[in-house]
Specification:
Number of helices: 20
Shape: globular
Strand order of the largest sheet: 1-2
Order of helices and strands: HHEEHHHHHHHHHHHHHHHHHH
Number of strands: 2
Radius of gyration: 21 Å
Largest sheet: 2 strands, antiparallel
Strand content: under 5%
Structural class: mainly alpha
Helix content: over 70%
């Protein structure tokens, strides 16, 4: 039955389709194929999540080799949730891509673009679903290498510099990760992540294990752009093609956070990460600094893409605060914010792509009067901004509510205050865009008519922005699954 092979089909379908996009001479055919593949991946991911919630984790043996000797694809509630996020983002972004890519990328490169996008998509899904530590590294590199290509396709020449900077920093992060995996193999003789988690307690916290933990932590935090290892991200987001920025903002850093969760809680175990290394002394302070510093830096940006890029680093800080608390409430907050931020920030970057299509710029001053000329696009930006701030009835509010609860549970009032201050800072940088778009007149000589984006771009934008509102009201999926994932990671019944 096909249902029994869904875990491997999740990877095989986009991987096989990617080279066909390069062979197709017309970009339209490559776009159609990519759209069908991403939609199929979404159906598979939704089915896997449903199966896991009903009957527990799924183990798939590749080649008939039983784990830990063979490579295993293992789906539990955490990575099934991540598979849904990545595949849903791909399925929503691809319909948007046709007009945006045609505007920003030369036609001769369209086949290569969709090939790289599907390879990146495959790599991200592979990182999420594999149960083998070295296999995780391989998929991470597939997604990273294709990301460098996608970013370099930006029409601004600075995209090449941004891609090179990302390549250098990404390579350093990947090197740290593979060294950490090698040290774990040295200590335990296995690469299967479930088997690693079973063998490490007997090995104990010797120097090899501690070194592995350090290498993996630094490598993963560099990949996810935790302060102060975030310097590659603003330029990568600012100069990449609009659809690439939206896709990576909603998926790439989220997958890197998943890597950290998987290593911390599945392999090393919550007791090792919390007591032996003390997450609250290592991760939480850096995350708080990220929230405060990067939110402040975002206020002073004149390029709205860079503004949202620094905002993303601050939002990563919120996720890491929840993870650092190492409690059910904290982990629930971090995981649910991973989902909520993917919808919100993906929608905001898609809205900016609509702006770039019509006025060719995302500089703040160039948005003057755009609230009247592009009412649907700018209103979607306003709603996404409200979710970033954390206004009630938005997904961002749900995340921050759980974060504040987690901080109060730990009697950590300073962190609770920092979360609130971060929200106040978000008001300032979101208001800067609103003020320019709605309260400033359009430049002299600007045609009076509307220049609203095409529906093929507006609909995906509004789906993501609508999701950031819907999941602020109906929380059974995002909070329910995040809470189940948190209890799973901590080994708490319920």
């Amino acid at each position: 039955m096909i249902a029994a092979h869904l875990p491997v089909l999740q990877i095989v379908v986009p991987l096989v389709a990617a080279p066909f996009c390069l062979l197709l001479r017309r970009g339209t055919w490559a776009w159609i194929l990519s759209s069908i593949v991403c939609l199929a991946a979404l159906v598979i991911a939704a089915t896997l999540l449903s199966q896991v919630l009903e009957s527990g984790p799924i183990s798939y043996e590749l080649g008939g080799w039983a784990p830990p000797w063979g490579i295993e694809y293992r789906v539990d509630v955490l990575n099934a949730f991540l598979l849904l996020i990545v595949s849903a983002t791909g399925a929503i972004v691809l319909p948007y891509a046709r007009r945006s890519v045609a505007h920003e990328i030369p036609e001769s490169q369209h086949g290569g673009f969709y090939t790289a996008l599907l390879l990146c998509f495959t790599g991200l899904l592979g990182v999420a679903i594999t149960g083998d530590a070295f296999n995780l590294f391989v998929f991470l590199e597939i997604s990273s290498l294709s990301s460098y290509v996608l970013i370099a396709m930006g029409r601004d020449r600075r995209a090449l510099t941004a891609a090179f900077q990302y390549l250098v920093m990404g390579t350093i992060g990947a090197t740290f990760i593979v060294i950490g995996i090698g040290l774990l193999y040295m200590a335990t003789g296995t690469l299967n992540m479930a088997d690693l988690g079973a063998r490490l307690p007997a090995v104990g916290a010797n120097r090899t294990v501690l070194a592995a933990f350090a290498f993996l932590t630094v490598g993963a935090t560099l990949k996810l752009a935790l302060f102060p290892l975030h310097f590659w991200l603003p330029n990568a987001y600012a100069y990449a093609p609009s659809v690439v920025t939206a896709f990576l903002a909603a998926t790439a850093t989220k997958v890197s956070i998943y890597i950290l969760l998987r290593f911390f809680f599945t392999i090393f175990g919550p007791t090792f990460a919390a007591e032996d290394i003390t997450l609250q002394r290592l991760v939480v302070p850096l995350a708080v600094i990220a929230v405060l510093v990067c939110s402040t830096v975002a206020i002073f940006q004149s390029n709205v893409k860079r503004m949202l890029a620094y905002s993303s680093i601050a939002q990563i800080g919120y996720m890491m605060i929840g993870i650092g608390f190492d409690t059910v409430t904290g982990l629930t907050a971090g995981i649910v914010h991973l989902f909520n931020h993917a919808a919100t920030k993906g929608g905001l970057f898609l809205a900016l792509g609509c702006v770039v299509l019509r006025i060719g710029s995302c500089q703040l001053d160039d948005l003057a009067g755009l609230g009247r000329r592009m009412p649907l696009t700018m209103f979607s930006f306003v709603l996404g901004g409200l979710s970033l701030i954390g206004v009630p009835l938005t997904a961002g509010f749900v995340s921050k509510w759980y974060l504040v609860q987690a901080a109060i549970e730990q009697d950590n009032w300073l962190v609770a205050v920092a979360i609130l201050v971060g929200s106040l800072l978000a008001i300032i940088y979101v208001w800067r865009v609103v003020e320019v778009a709605y309260l400033r007149p359009a430049p002299e000589g600007t045609p009076a008519g509307g220049i609203e984006a095409p529906w093929s771009m507006l609909v995906p934008t509004w789906i993501l922005i609508g999701a950031s509102i819907y999941f602020g009201i109906e929380t059974s999926l995002n909070v329910g699954v995040a809470s189940a994932a948190a209890r799973f990671l901590l080994g708490v019944a319920g």
